[in-house]
Amino acid sequence: AIGWEKEMLDVLGETQVLLDRESRDKLSKDYFWYSPVLDRQLKEKVADGIVVPLNEEDVAKALAFAYKHKLPVTVRGAGTGNYGQAVPLFGGIVLDLSKLDSIVEVGDGYARVQCGVRLGALEKHLREQGQELRIYPSTFMKATVGGFVCGGSGGIGSITWGNLWDGNVLEAVVMTMEEQPRRLVVTGPDLLNYIHNYGTNGIVTELKIPISSRNEWMQTVVQFDRFEDAMLFAEALSKDDSVRKRLVCPVEWPIPSYFLPIVKHLKEGAAAVLLETVDGTLDAIEAHAASHNGSVGHIISPSQYRKTIGLSDFSWNHTTLWGLKTDPTITYLQAGFSPVLFMEQIKLVKDTFGDEVLLHFEWARNGGVVTPNALPIVRFTTEERLYEIIEFFESNGIKIFDPHTWVLNDGGRGEFGGMSKRKRENDPLGLLNPGKMNQQS
Ligand code: FAD
To answer: In the chain, where are the structural domains located?
Structure first.
């Protein structure tokens, strides 16, 4: 080690500083390679050093050290993000927070955890005590609570509970990037300045999240000859509040053919709706299916929950993952279809692009409105063509949250809640994950 790296070893100790090329390469990457656009731009980026804090004091020490040497700091949870959020664009330090992994407190309706706790481990712990997570990404077995809050949006459970910014974070403990890092306890509307902001406004060390009482979940595949029927069934079930649910995911053929572990249970050529609903709702599902020309197929009973591969492992961006195993040329988009006009919009997309764009939807409650969110799979040819497709979607009222950019403001969330103001206060030298946020004055 030379220069600041040597001093960093002295300040933080050998076990917490990794300088070898292999560790730096591995811990400088996330799942940006789902995007050929990001892959081209990000694959060579690497941190100069990895710091692995064991507690909040270590985080403060690492931040003060980086401030003194004007080193960029990019936070990493589990590195399962898709937009290169956790990739250091300008070298410096990657702060790997996966060792801050204590569950601090579980109360009735809430959990307080360190940021590096994995959502899968937390869900298991909570279910053993009669509670469970409200929302989690399909990567929950690996992903950390901090990474989800700072880099994710929603997922399984969002059909009932909404996304991260719909009241699903109660409190965040945030360390600032200053000569002497401050420890802020953030609650209320100010939380919006830290949710999904890629660690550009502070390092979140601890979180309090709301949780739900435990349910017994049944998983069901309902099959339809026509994708249109699958969509109308999914809408009706999503809006039926008497059926408690975590997942409503209509998938058009041939996407189900990519689901290799369960394909033998699926009907060839048919659209599928993947469901996770509470035990005892089969009659209601059958009734909805019958009125939309569908039939119940594969069922995973509550006793098998998490004992076999679950249906959520084929939903959200896991759908793209299964697609990539069959066809490495595919990529994806993130699209918000109109809750009112989605059938017309789907027809327009299919008439225009055919099998170049394949659709699956994850119904979710966005700000209280039951909405068909989609992560369309796109057969990739060129970047020009990809942006032509994006332009077509947007000009037809389908909102695109571009997953082919690492810039927060370009990903469709835009500026909200005074993020730039917090940035200037908490990170005056602009060292936190630089290049990810276009500041506004
Ligand atoms: P990381 O990737 O490590 O970090 C994410 C961002 O947050 C980075 O910018 C990082 O710098 C920042 N960050 C991490 N920890 C902190 C912290 N403590 N303080 C400040 N900043 C921090 N996302 C969804 O929302 N829903 C889904 O259903 C979903 N499905 C996915 C499926 C697949 C197959 C893949 C590859 C990704 C999917 N994602 C999904 C994206 C991602 O997996 C999740 O958002 C996940 O929660 C990220 O957690 P992580 O610990 O891996 O975060």
So the answer is: 4-96, 103-213, 217-400
Nearest CA to ligand 1 atom 6: 151
For residue 145, the ligand 1 atom closest to its alpha carbon is: 51
CA gap 219, 315 in Å, rounded: 12
Level-2 CATH architecture, domain 103-213? 2-Layer Sandwich (3.30)
Which residues in 52-182 belong to E strands, given as ranges?
73-76, 93-96, 103-107, 110-114, 131-133, 171-175
36-63 pLDDT per residue, tens? 999 999 999 999 999 999 999 999 999 9
The angle subtended at Cα 377 by Cα 372 and Cα 383, nearest 5°, is 120
Residue bearing the CA closest to ligand 1, atom 27: 137
Residues facing 330 on adjacent strands: 379
Q: Whose CA is nearest to atom 34 of ligand 1?
A: 318
Residue type, 419: M
* ipTM (interface pTM): 0.99
* CATH number of the domain located at residue range(s) 4-96 in this protein: 3.30.43.10
117-173 pLDDT, tens digit each: 999 999 999 999 999 999 999 999 999 999 999 999 999 999 999 999 999 999 999
Q: Which residue owns the Cα nearest ligand 1 atom 32?
A: 317
Cβ < 6 A, ligand 1 pocket: 30-31, 74-82, 85-86, 97, 115, 137-139, 143-144, 146-148, 150-155, 198-199, 203-204, 316-318, 321, 433
Assigned architecture for domain 217-400: 3-Layer(aba) Sandwich (3.40)
Contact, 63 vs 112, CB < 8 A? no
